[in-house]
Amino acid sequence: MLTATPAFAQEYTIKEVTNPNGGEHPYYFSPDKLTIQPGDTVNFIDAQDDMHDVMFINVPKKVDEMIMSPMHQKAGDKFSYTFTVPGTYQFHCHPHEKLGMKGTIIVGKPSKPGETKTMDHHEMAEHAAAGADHHHEAVSASGLAQGTGIINSVDADKHTVSITHDPIKSLGWPEMKMLFTVDSGVDLSAFNAGDAVSFTLKSSGKDDYAIASLKKGK
Ligand SMILES: [Cu+2]
User: Fold this and answer.
1) DSSP assigned state of 190
2) For residue 169, what pLDDT is reported?
3) Which residues, 6 or more positions from 118, have their beta carbon under 8 angstroms from its beta carbon?
4) Alpha-carbon gap, residue 45 to 69, rounded angstroms
5) What domains are defined for the chain?
6) The pLDDT value given to residue 151
7) In angstroms, what CA-CA distances link 70 with 5, 10, 99?
8) How far is the CA of 199 from the centre of ligand 1 (A)?
9) For residue 161, how many C-alpha atoms fall within 13 Å in the half-sphere facing its CB?
């Protein structure tokens, strides 16, 4: 044949990993960088029983849909997507976004500056079919989300508290160590590292939560 034969579409796997040893990077995608060709499919697979999802946050401008998985909870939970538009795709796991769980897929060749767009997945998630699990929906429905956990440290000057919280189902969050800003009305002098606490969260800005109330005991 004189014409070029198109390559067969390939399948790739990216694992959603919870590192049992914790450390600096307790959550990550493996691999977190992948180059594929248009028409190839990537399977994102939960590597263990833990909560992760996949949200594409920056994609080539010609992509006309939101690329977002439902929340994965069990080993083997899978989300597959076939990439047709060439360019650079960036994604993250929403619960672990701030812990650096993110990755990049290049389809064909990388996008040049200005050829990609940011996807507003927070807004779109509310309209997605799977949105019932999604925390923005949960929060807009109730205004507040409830949580429990153990205090790691208190910073009275900055009015923040570090809490290792239990899974917060309404937000789709697994157990995590998180730093929260606390409402000025809460007296932090009563709290110390090691305290078991219950708290309510309110949405503060697009992607953040603040503690609206805090009390001792789970
Ligand atoms: Cu994750």
Assistant:
1) G
2) 76
3) 57, 58
4) 11
5) 11-133 (2.60.40.420), 139-216 (2.40.50.320)
6) 94
7) 36, 23, 19
8) 23
9) 31
- Report CA dihedral (84, 86, 92, 93) to the nearest 10 degrees: 10
What pLDDT score was predicted for residue 132?
Answer: 42
- Which pTM value belongs to this model? 0.58
Compute mean pLDDT per 10 residues along the chain, 218 residues long, and list them: 64 94 86 97 96 95 91 95 97 90 97 91 47 41 74 88 83 76 88 92 70 90
Residues less than 5 Å from ion ligand 1, measured at CB: 27, 52, 93, 96, 101
- Distance of CA 164 to CAs 133, 138, 148, 178, 214, Å? 21, 21, 9, 6, 14
* C-alpha of residue 1 to centroid of ligand 1, in Å: 47
Whose tokens are 């399977």? That residue is: 43
Lookup result for tokens 């606490």: 197
Per-residue confidence (pLDDT) for residue 32, from 0 to 100: 97
